[in-house]
Amino acid sequence: MSAANKARNKVDNLAGKAKEAVGNLTGDPLTRDQGRSDQAKANLRDAGEKIKDAFKK
Question: Could you tell me which InterPro entries the record lists for this protein (predicted)?
Fold first, then answer.
């Protein structure tokens, strides 16, 4: 399941980057900030996965 979680984190991170870019293009600070927030959440979950992997070894 770890690989599935890592893939989901990558997709969420890319979606956040896209949302941030749309916010920048449209000048909508709310959308931009939501994209940044989505990226931060994905990065935190990815860090958690890396910690779990470190303890498995």
Answer: CsbD, YjbJ_sf
Instruction: Please state the pTM of the whole predicted model.
Output: 0.85
Q: Which amino acid is at 14?
A: L
Task: Dump pLDDT digits (tens) for 10-47.
Answer: 999 999 999 999 999 999 999 999 999 999 999 999 99
Of residues 24, 18, 16, the one with CA closest to residue 41: 16
Q: Specify whether the CB–CB gap between 49 and 38 falls below 8 A.
A: no
Q: Which of 35, 43, 49, 52 is nearest to 10 (CA)?
A: 43
